[in-house]
Amino acid sequence: MPRTITARRLLTEKEEIDHPRITVEDGRILSLESGLPNDSDETLTAAFLDIHVHGAVSHDFMTANGAEIDSISRFLGSRGVAYYLPTTVTGPTDLTLRALETLADSIEKDSTDGFDAARPVAIHLEGPFVSHLRRGVHPVACLLEPSIALFDRFQHAARGHIRLMTIAPELPNSLEVMKHAIGQGVRVSMGHTDANEAEALAAIKVGAASATHAFNAMRPLNHREPGILGSVLDQDAVYAEAICDGIHVHPAMIRLWLRMKGDTRAILVTDGMSATGMPDGTYNLGDMTVEVKNGVCLAGETLAGSVLTMEQAVANLQRFTGSPLGTAVRLASHNPARMLGMPSLMSFEPGCPANFNVYDGEGRRTATILKGNRLPN
Ligand SMILES: [Zn+2]
Fold this sequence. Notes:
The chain is of the alpha/beta class. The protein has helices at about 65-80, 95-110, 150-155, 175-185, 195-205, 225-235, 250-265, 310-320, 325-330, 335-340, and strands spanning about 5, 10, 15-20, 20-25, 30-35, 45, 50-55, 55, 60, 80-85, 120, 125, 160-165, 185-190, 210, 240-245, 265-270, 280-285, 290-295, 295-300, 300-305, 355-360, 365-370, 375. Helix 7 links the parallel strand 16 (about 240-245) and strand 17 (about 265-270). The protein is globular and about 60 Å long. It starts with a strand and ends with a strand. The structure holds zinc ion (ZN). Zinc ion binds near residues 52, 54, 126, 271 and 305.
């Protein structure tokens, strides 16, 4: 039986539709039109896509089993995320290979069973091809030089589901590995890197599409040697992630980032780790122990991911930059989907899953709609 969803307005990537009337059957959009005025004060937006998340509700993608991945997916769904890229962290090669196999199982699982959960759609491989100088908390003993053979082992274990790879352009063989991965449809994101300008531009020239958590774990800006960060901000075609929690990047730098990247190339990510959705305490990120206190995640003295949710990132971006809701949501949905070459994930065309976020008249997110199924907060 088809059902109807109505609202005051729907924010699509390009426009605002007044009084949308959306007919849904079997979780998919049958039709979408501007209907008669109704008394709803709700706004519908796209549901979120998080391309950089390491875990939640005490589970980490490096070690989680299928049931634990399902609990992460349900948590993310309850916070407005429809799709996500489970993200690895540098670890022993055997551990990484096992994690990739398990993640591939979850991605390939029949998607019709999850009407209350976000879906993992591909994998983000973060590490081991990252810089010693800018490793953040990635364990030094497991960092490796880029290698096509090793990338192929990872992609084989992942059964082709690695879609995004963070890599430092200045490492030996990095450009060859980038070209090889890009040839398979993988998006390359420059990150955990000490690259200078020439090294960054060389990576962009071979097709690097994005930058991983811009500002963090990256050579800082210098006005005589712009380095990776200067190039990423300056080159219009390059996307850039940011962790908009007010801890990883100062609000003034978020404003600069948004001005430079604009509302088509800026991407909000959470970099959320296993403590997300949990009280302060001791948690794991891959092999590491992380202490979470007042929402700050530290391994020793170094920031180790976040407990940010995408709904909070979107709210912070509005608060820090004064951007309207539509812009903030685009940074968390359409932009990452376009960067990945998966724009249909965020489409409202007939036949697409009926996934939305619901905001009330005051701009507060009150519910997620996944496949037409309304999940209150
Ligand atoms: Zn990360």
